[in-house]
């Protein structure tokens, strides 16, 4: 930890105003990771509409509401793209979770969850990915009364780069926008049913 004291790192990922906020925060590390979570979430969100947009966190501004000297919600401003609306949750065990959407209505409609990874003997990264997929598909199947075994998360590769995950049901692409992530002992998932 204590990454908030590494000014070379801060200058790589934060704007000047964000660096000032982090330095004046009662919990600088949590403030730093809140900004990082917002920018990473914005990238995952915007990449679905602007496929070739590079991730340049230093050039992206996080603006919004602060509660108890902690950023809680707002938007990420990205040059050449629409803003991404974000909301941060400060959860027990030091876990921060961020949701993002390209409009406020969608942000309010996202279903999400965080699970703790069970102990794996090999500890390989792909196990956390498959556990996250299982958590997402089980929750979505329960929520929409679908056959869990017919749900599948797929990620295509284009130009050697993995694309955002897509959800398939009975081998057909679904109208769900999904997101998966993992960090340390936590996996997180989110889903939203698109009506268009």
Summed over residues and divided by their number, the pLDDT gives a mean of 88
- CATH fold descriptor of the largest domain: Ribosomal Protein L22, Chain A
Secondary structure class reads alpha+beta
Q: Overall 3D geometry? A: globular
Taking all Cα atoms into account, the compactness measure Rg is: 17 Å
Describe the structure.
With 196 residues, the chain is an alpha+beta fold. The chain has two domains: 3-109, Ribosomal Protein L22, Chain A (Alpha-Beta Complex), CATH 3.90.470; 112-193, 4'-phosphopantetheinyl transferase domain (Ribosomal Protein L22, Chain A, Alpha-Beta Complex). It has five helices and twelve strands. The strands form four sheets. A four-stranded antiparallel beta sheet has the order 1-2-3-4. Strands 5-12-11 form a three-stranded antiparallel beta sheet, covered by helices on one side. Strands 6-9-10 form a three-stranded antiparallel beta sheet, with helices on one face. Strand 2 and strand 3 (84-91) form a beta hairpin. The longest helix is centred in the last third of the chain and has 20 residues, at 125-144. The radius of gyration is 17 Å and the shape is globular. The model has no long low-confidence stretch (mean pLDDT 88).
